[in-house]
């Protein structure tokens, strides 16, 4: 698919992106981005904490495709929420690019850096109890957003947004006195066992683009092994990954699919339209089977803000 959706900034965003989380081998980031751009992808998603911005940026630069034809996203790590402008500058220098298309706050969680030694901010600082050192009283994501909303004016990024934000987090951000800008996007885990109907509806009403990460369920792609998915893909004679990615696209949001295998990267872009019946069957899977959250780190905002 070469289709694009529209952000609340007016910019177009290609609906299928290559995800690069865990593309960590010596050349995984580079090779997968080269393969994706060759296969026609024009949207690449990375993050400072993925540790592959240098490879991803080099692949974008080496591809020969004009920079303005590629949509590039990266993310602010939790240790740098006091200084998003500085963090973005570092990201651009690792990527070797002049600007991003989208810069996201990676989590609505600020890490305390009192125990960070030197300048390596790509860490998970620990407190006395060996848990992630989360800053709660003196700072929070609302203050981070107040700094981030100034970034488009610097020219370093065309748009800013958030990631892993719940409805409550978004409500707090949107109604805070210092808020001047609605996030362009909220990047969250979505797949048939975590369909996020309410969060998607809320974001739509506010004009916030949804981006689905771990669309196949991340490591080992558990969603591909769901009996119902296998049954429908057999019936339609399409690979399960193609069925699920098509289902995401049909829901009308951006989907970020990670692979380091060229043949999968090529196949994952081939989407088709599902019948209403098949679309609904996948939509109802979580109701029947219960939900599954695969990305649940120990700084997860879900218990934190409950
Ligand atoms: P790999 O990188 O080895 O191809 P998600 O996008 O939900 O994070 O899921 C990505 C997982 O699914 C990765 O482990 C990826 O592994 C695997 N994957 C990606 N595309 C396909 C595909 N077409 N068929 C099977 N597995 C896939």
TrEMBL record:
Active site (UniProt): 50
Keyword NADP recorded: yes
Ranges of residues in domain NADP-dependent oxidoreductase: 16-285
Pfam families registered for this protein in UniProt: Aldo_ket_red
Site, Lowers pKa of active site Tyr: residue positions: 75
Source organism, top-level taxon: Eukaryota
InterPro entries to which the protein is assigned, alphabetical: AKR (IPR020471), Aldo/ket_reductase_CS (IPR018170), NAD(P)_OxRdtase_dom_sf (IPR036812), NADP_OxRdtase_dom (IPR023210)
GO biological process terms on file: arabinose catabolic process; cellular response to oxidative stress; D-xylose catabolic process; glycerol to glycerone phosphate metabolic process
GO MF annotation terms: aldose reductase (NADPH) activity; glycerol 2-dehydrogenase (NADP+) activity; mRNA binding
Keywords, alphabetical: NADP, Oxidoreductase
Chain residues that bind substrate: 106
Keyword Oxidoreductase appears in the UniProt entry: yes
Protein family membership: Belongs to the aldo/keto reductase family.
Protein name per its UniProtKB record: NADP-dependent oxidoreductase domain-containing protein
